[in-house]
Design goal:
The complex is a heterotrimer of chains A (310), B (288) and C (401).
Chain A (H helix, E strand, L loop, with lengths): L4 H15 L8 H27 L6 H15 L8 H19 L6 H25 L4 E2 L6 H24 L1 H11 L1 H6 L4 H27 L1 E2 L1 H4 L2 H14 L6 H19 L4 H15 L3 H19 L1
Antiparallel strand pairs in A: 1-2
Helix pairs in contact in A: 1-6, 2-6, 2-9, 2-11, 2-12, 3-4, 3-5, 3-9, 4-9, 6-7, 6-9, 11-12
Chain B lengths: L1 H25 L8 H19 L3 H30 L3 H27 L12 E4 L2 E4 H23 L1 H11 L1 H6 L4 H23 L10 H15 L4 H22 L4 H15 L11
Antiparallel strand pairs in B: 1-2
Helix pairs in contact in B: 1-5, 1-8, 1-9, 1-10, 2-3, 2-4, 2-8, 2-9, 3-4, 3-8, 5-6, 5-8, 6-8, 9-10, 10-11
Chain C lengths: L1 H20 L7 E8 L6 H7 L1 H13 L3 E3 L2 E11 L4 H13 L5 E2 L5 H14 L3 E3 L7 H7 L3 E3 L4 H17 L6 E7 L2 H16 L3 E8 L7 H9 L4 E5 L2 H14 L5 E4 L6 H7 L7 E3 L7 H14 L7 H19 L4 H10 L1 E4 L2 E4 L10 E7 L2 E7 L16
Helix pairs in contact in C: 3-12, 4-5, 7-8, 9-10, 13-14
The chains are: A mainly alpha (310), B mainly alpha (288), C alpha/beta (401).
C-alpha cells in the first residue's frame, strides 16, 4: 500500500491548487479561516518535520515567528516588502542553527523547556534593543490584502511539503528515522546525528520566521507581547500532536478540525471560550490518544479487517 | 548587601512559585502546565478573604493549603492517573501530560473568569518598610521570604526523614524498583502531586500581597516555574531552591548594576548557559 | 459505551446552552458587535474599561426603548466575542460579525494593537470604527488609509507634551528643581511614550538623572525604585502598564521616595488604584483625568456604578462610553443604519458626550482630550488637556502618608 512518491506529490499539488481557489469564492469569512488553517498548516508541518522523527518537542515556534514579525516591522520602512520574508527565513534558519548546535546534549523535557527559555530570551533581547534604539512603535501599513497573505502562506506550505517529501526520500530522512528509533544505534552506524537534527531544525525555524514576516502586515501594529506570545508555541504543539507527527500529512489533519472546533467554540460561547477549549483538549487527549492519524488508521484497519472477513 | 537581601527575597518568591511544580514533575511525573493557575487561585482566595472579611493572607494560607491539597488529589486521581496507566513510555506520558494539563490550564482560567471576573486582584497588605542592615525593604516580601524558608525546610526534612518522604524520593530515583520493594507508587504519586498543588496555592496566597494578579496571569508563573525546576534539576528540592535564589540574586544584580531592561534576558541567559554546561540541571542526575 | 454517553450528554448540553443563548427577538433590532479581551494579558484592563461600558450602554438604550432611526425605535442586541488578546482572533471575530452575524455596527476593539489589527476589516466592510482605547502618533496616516477610523483617546505626543508642560510650569514657578527620573515598561506603549518624551524633556531644559526601561512582567521593581531614589530626582515619571503601575507605587511608598511629582501611566486612573493605596495616592499624577465636577460625568459614574457594581476609571472609561454615545447619536442623526451615511455624519457633526462635546478634526481625531490627571481627594481630576474645560491646578506630591 505504499504510494509512489510521484503520486503523493501530485496529490498534494492538487490539494494546494484547489485551496488556492478559495479567495475566488469571495467569502471574507472563509478567507479568514483559510488564513488560519494555512498558517497553522505551515507551522505544524514544519514543526513536525523536526519533532516527528527526533521526538524533540520544541516550544521555540514563537521565537522564530516573532523574529519574522520584527523583520517585517523594522524593515518595512527601509526595504520593499517582497524581500522581507526571505530575509526573515534566513534569520530564522541562522538562529535555528545556533540553537540546534547549542542543544545537542539536551534531551527530553530539558530540551522542551530550553526552547521555551530561548524564546523568552530572544524576545527580551529584541525588546531591549528596540527600546535602546529609541525606535517608536512598529507600524506595517501596506496595501497587502487577505487573499495575498493567504496565497503567500499556501506557497510556503508547498515549499514545506516539497522539502518534507525530498527529505523523506533522501539519506537525511533515512538517518532521521533511525535517530528517532534509537539515537545510539544511529550514532554507531556512522550517522552524523548532530548535523541531521540541526538541518531539520533550521527548516522548521526558517518556516516559522517566514510565517511571522508574512503575517506582520495583517496585524498592522507589531507588539512584542503578541509577536512572541508563548501561546503560539503551545498551539502548534497541540495541533501537530493532535494530527499525528509520524507522517507528513499528519499535522494538517489535526489543524483543520482543530481550527473549525476553535471557530465553533469562539463563535458559540463567547463567555466560556477558554473553558470549553480546555474541555476539548481534555476530551481529545482521552478519546484520541494517538491523534487523528491514529483514528484514521484504526478506521482503515477496521474496514480492511471487515473486508477480509467478508 | 542591599542587592543580596533584595535578591534573596525575590529568590524566596521564586522558590514558592517553583517548589510545588518540582514535586509534581519530579515525583508524580506530571509536567503540570496548570501550575500557574493553581497559584492564581491561591492569590484570589487571599484577596477575597482580605477584602471581604479583612482576614490576613497569612491566615488564609491555612484554608488554601488543605483546599488545594484536596483539589489536586482529585485532579490527579481522576484526570491524570488514567494517563499514567495508559502510557507505555516516559515520553508518551510527557506528551499526554503536556496536552492534558494545557487543557486543564484553559479550563482553570475559564472557571476563574466565570467565578471572579477578569479584573485585577488588588489589595495592599504589609506594604510597609522595614529596615535591615541600614536599608529598607518591603515587609510583605520579607514575610513571604520567611514563609518560603519554612516551607522549603519542611519539604526537605519531610522528604529526607519521614517514611513516606523517603519512599517518595525512592520513586523519583527509580520508579520501577520502588514498586518492587513494596512502595505504593500510585498513592504516593498522588500524595506528591497534591502536596505540590498545596504548596503552589500557598505560594500564590503569599505572593498576592505584592504581585498584581488576574485570572489570566497564571501562564507567566508556569513559565517561570518550569525554568527554575529544569535549571535546578528535576526532582531535587535543593536544586529548585538554589536555582530560585540564583535567579533572584542575578535579576536583582542586573537590575541594580547593569540595566533593569535586561533582567529577564539575564535570567534566561543564565538558564541557557547552565543547561549548556549541565544538560541535566544543577542537581539533576544523568539520564533521569 | 460510557464514552458515547458522555459525548451525547456534552452535545445535548451544548445544544441547550446554544438555545438559551439565542436572544428573544424584538420587532426592530440593531445587531451590535463587540470584540475585546476576556482572557489573555489585556483582560484585566478590558474588565475595567471595555466590557462594563458596553453592558451599561446596551442596558440603557433598551430601557429607554431603543435607538431612534428615522422615527422607528430599534432595540440593540449585543453580540460579544472574546479575542483572547490575540490580534488573529480579533480579526477573525470582526470578520465573523461582519459576514456571519450580519452585525449592523461593530464597536471598536480594545487597545492600540488590537484596534489597528482590526482596522483593515472595519474598512473593508465600511464599518465606522470609533476607537476609545487606541493611542498613536500616526493619526493622519492611519485615517488616510482607513477613512472610517476615528480616534477619541488622543495622541501620544500630546499626552507626553502636556505632562512636560506641567513639570515646566512647576519648575519655572520655583516649586521644584529640574531633575527627572524616567522609567518605562519595555512594551510597545511604554517604548513609544518614552522615546517621545526624552527629546521633549531635554528640549524643555530638564536633566534626566535616571533613565531606564524594565521588561513587562518584572517581578520586583525595588532595584528600579532604589536606583531612582539614589539619583535624587525632583520628579519621577513612569510610562507604565497596570501591574507595574501598582508595583512602582508600592515600592515608592516603601522607599519613601521624596519627589515633588510622582507620575505613573496606565491604571493610575483606575478606582482600584485609590482603593489599594488610599491616602498615599493623594497627589499622584497619571495619564488621563476627567472633569470630576461636571454633572454629566458624575451622573455617568453613578449610573456605571449602579449598573455594573464598579466605578468607571478616570481616563478611558468615559471615552469608551462617549464612543457609544457618538455612535448612537450618529445613527439617530443620520436617520439611517446605512454605515457610510453614519460614518459621514460622524465626520460632519459634533456630539454631546459624558466627557463634553466631541468634534472630530479632518484626520478623524478628537482634538480635545484630557492628558494629565491627578488624585486629589476622592477623584482623579484632570490637570491638563488639549482643550477641555474644568482643569484643576496641579499640586505637589507631599509625602506618602
Amino acid at each position: 500500500m505504499i504510494r509512489s512518491g510521484g503520486t503523493s506529490l501530485a496529490l498534494t499539488a492538487l490539494v494546494l491548487a484547489l485551496a488556492a481557489l478559495l479567495p475566488l469564492a469571495g467569502s471574507p469569512y472563509w478567507q479568514s479561516i483559510g488564513i488560519s488553517i494555512a498558517m497553522f498548516a505551515v507551522l505544524t508541518t514544519s514543526w513536525a518535520l523536526f519533532s516527528g522523527p527526533t521526538h524533540y518537542i520544541s516550544l521555540a515556534t514563537a521565537a522564530f515567528f516573532g523574529v519574522g514579525s520584527y523583520t517585517t516591522g523594522m524593515g518595512i520602512e527601509l526595504l520593499p516588502y517582497w524581500c522581507l520574508p526571505p530575509i526573515a527565513g534566513v534569520l530564522g534558519a541562522a538562529m535555528a542553527a545556533l540553537v540546534g548546535l547549542a542543544t545537542l546534549r539536551l534531551s527530553g523535557v530539558y530540551f522542551v523547556i530550553f526552547t521555551l527559555g530561548l524564546a523568552e530570551l530572544v524576545r527580551q533581547i529584541i525588546i531591549w534593543f528596540q527600546n535602546f534604539s529609541g525606535q517608536k512603535g512598529l507600524y506595517v501599513l501596506t496595501k497587502i490584502t487577505e487573499a495575498q497573505i493567504y496565497w503567500q502562506l499556501l506557497g510556503l506550505a508547498a515549499l514545506v511539503y516539497l522539502a518534507g517529501w525530498a527529505i523523506g526520500r533522501s539519506r537525511l530522512g533515512f538517518a532521521l528515522r533511525i535517530i528517532g528509533d534509537d539515537e545510539q544505534v544511529a550514532r554507531h552506524s556512522g550517522i552524523n546525528t548532530a548535523r541531521a537534527k540541526v538541518a531539520l531544525f533550521m527548516i522548521s525555524g526558517a518556516a516559522a520566521a517566514v510565517v511571522g514576516a508574512i503575517l506582520a502586515p495583517r496585524y498592522v501594529y507589531i507588539e512584542p507581547a503578541t509577536a512572541f506570545t508563548p501561546m503560539l508555541s503551545f498551539q502548534v504543539v497541540i495541533m501537530a500532536l493532535l494530527g499525528g507527527t509520524g507522517r507528513l500529512w499528519g499535522p494538517v489533519v489535526g489543524v483543520i478540525p482543530f481550527t473549525f472546533l476553535w471557530e465553533a467554540i469562539s463563535s458559540s460561547f463567547p463567555n466560556q471560550t477558554t473553558l470549553l477549549l480546555g474541555v476539548c483538549f481534555l476530551v481529545i487527549v482521552y478519546v484520541l490518544p494517538r491523534g487523528f492519524v491514529g483514528l484514521i488508521e484504526a478506521v482503515r484497519r477496521r474496514v480492511a479487517a471487515r473486508e477480509g472477513v467478508a | 548587601m542591599d542587592i543580596l537581601i533584595t535578591g534573596l527575597f525575590l529568590g524566596g518568591a521564586y522558590a514558592l512559585i517553583a517548589m510545588g511544580l518540582n514535586l509534581q514533575y519530579g515525583i508524580a511525573r506530571i509536567m503540570n502546565l496548570a501550575n500557574g493557575e493553581m497559584l492564581v487561585f491561591g492569590g484570589f482566595a487571599a484577596f477575597w478573604m482580605y477584602t471581604a472579611a479583612q482576614v490576613s493572607p497569612l491566615l488564609t494560607v491555612f484554608l488554601v493549603a488543605p483546599a488545594a491539597f484536596a483539589m489536586n488529589w482529585v485532579i490527579y486521581s481522576v484526570m491524570l492517573r488514567p494517563l499514567v496507566r495508559r502510557a507505555r513510555s516516559r515520553g508518551q506520558l510527557e506528551v499526554d501530560a503536556i496536552l492534558a494539563t494545557f487543557g486543564l490550564s484553559f479550563v482553570s482560567v475559564g472557571i476563574m473568569l466565570a467565578l471572579f471576573g477578569g479584573d485585577y486582584f488588588n489589595y495592599s497588605y504589609l506594604a510597609r518598610p522595614i529596615t535591615l542592615a541600614g536599608d529598607t525593604y518591603a515587609l510583605n516580601r520579607a514575610t513571604a521570604f520567611v514563609a518560603a524558608v519554612l516551607i522549603c525546610a519542611a519539604v526537605y526534612l519531610w522528604l529526607n526523614l519521614s517514611r513516606p518522604g523517603l519512599s517518595i524520593r525512592a520513586i523519583a530515583v527509580a520508579p520501577d524498583s520502588a514498586r518492587l520493594v513494596g512502595i505504593d507508587v500510585p498513592r504516593l504519586a498522588a500524595l506528591a502531586f497534591a502536596l505540590g498543588g498545596a504548596i503552589t496555592a500557598t505560594g500564590g496566597a503569599l505572593l498576592s500581597m505584592f504581585f498584581t494578579l488576574d485570572a489570566s496571569t497564571g501562564v507567566i508563573f508556569t513559565l517561570k516555574a518550569l525554568v527554575i525546576v529544569i535549571m535546578g534539576g528535576v526532582g531535587d528540592v535543593r536544586g529548585t531552591i538554589v536555582a530560585a535564589l540564583a535567579l533572584g540574586i542575578l535579576e536583582t544584580f542586573v537590575a541594580a548594576v547593569i540595566d533593569p531592561g535586561l533582567t529577564l534576558a539575564a535570567a534566561y541567559l543564565l538558564f541557557i548557559v547552565i543547561l549548556l554546561f549541565r544538560p541535566q540541571g544543577l542537581f539533576g542526575r544523568r539520564g533521569a | 459505551m460510557e464514552r458515547r454517553t458522555i459525548l451525547k450528554t456534552t452535545a445535548a448540553l451544548a445544544m441547550a446552552m446554544g438555545l438559551m443563548a439565542a436572544p428573544a427577538l424584538a420587532q426592530e433590532t440593531l445587531k451590535i458587535g463587540a470584540v475585546g479581551p476576556k482572557t489573555g494579558p489585556l483582560a484585566g484592563g478590558a474588565a475595567v474599561t471595555h466590557w462594563p461600558n458596553i453592558a451599561l450602554w446596551s442596558k440603557e438604550v433598551n430601557e429607554r426603548g431603543g435607538i431612534d432611526v428615522g422615527g422607528t425605535k430599534y432595540m440593540v442586541e449585543v453580540i460579544e466575542y472574546d479575542d483572547q488578546t490575540n490580534p488573529a482572533e480579533t480579526i477573525a471575530a470582526v470578520t465573523r460579525l461582519a459576514t456571519q452575524d450580519g452585525a449592523d455596527f461593530i464597536l471598536a476593539p480594545y487597545s492600540t494593537g488590537l484596534n489597528l489589527a482590526a482596522a483593515p476589516i472595519f474598512d473593508r466592510f465600511g464599518y465606522p470604527q470609533i476607537t476609545s482605547t487606541a493611542s498613536t502618533d500616526r493619526v493622519a496616516e492611519l485615517s488616510g488609509q482607513f477613512p472610517n477610523l476615528f480616534f477619541l483617546l488622543g495622541q501620544n505626543s500630546q499626552i507626553v507634551g502636556n505632562a512636560v508642560d506641567i513639570l515646566s510650569k512647576l519648575r519655572d514657578a520655583g516649586e521644584m528643581g529640574n531633575k527627572i527620573a524616567m522609567v518605562n515598561v519595555a512594551d510597545a506603549f511604554g517604548i513609544e511614550l518614552a522615546a517621545t518624551a526624552k527629546p521633549i524633556f531635554e528640549g524643555a531644559g530638564f536633566e534626566l538623572v535616571y533613565e531606564t526601561s524594565y521588561p513587562l512582567g518584572t517581578p520586583d521593581l525595588s532595584p528600579v525604585m532604589k536606583a531612582a531614589k539614589a539619583a535624587e530626582p525632583d520628579a519621577f515619571i513612569a510610562w507604565s502598564y497596570p501591574p507595574d503601575t501598582f508595583g512602582l507605587t508600592e515600592q515608592a511608598i516603601i522607599e519613601d521616595l521624596n519627589v515633588k511629582v510622582f507620575y505613573t501611566a496606565v491604571a493610575t486612573a483606575f478606582p482600584a488604584f485609590k482603593g489599594r493605596f488610599g491616602a498615599a495616592a493623594e497627589g499622584i499624577m497619571g495619564i488621563g483625568g476627567v472633569n470630576a465636577e461636571s454633572a454629566s460625568f458624575q451622573d455617568y459614574a453613578a449610573r456605571h456604578t449602579a449598573a455594573t457594581g464598579a466605578a468607571p476609571d478616570y481616563w478611558a472609561s468615559g471615552m469608551m462610553y462617549a464612543s457609544l454615545q457618538i455612535l448612537e447619536q450618529a445613527i439617530t442623526g443620520a436617520g439611517t443604519i446605512d454605515r457610510a451615511a453614519v460614518a459621514q455624519y460622524i465626520k460632519d457633526n459634533s456630539f454631546d458626550t459624558v466627557m463634553g462635546p466631541v468634534d472630530f478634526d479632518e484626520n478623524n481625531n478628537n482634538p480635545a482630550y484630557w492628558t494629565v490627571g491627578q488624585w486629589q481627594g476622592d477623584a482623579f481630576r484632570g490637570v491638563a488637556s488639549t482643550g477641555r474645560e474644568g482643569a484643576v491646578a496641579p499640586m505637589l506630591k507631599a509625602g506618602w502618608k
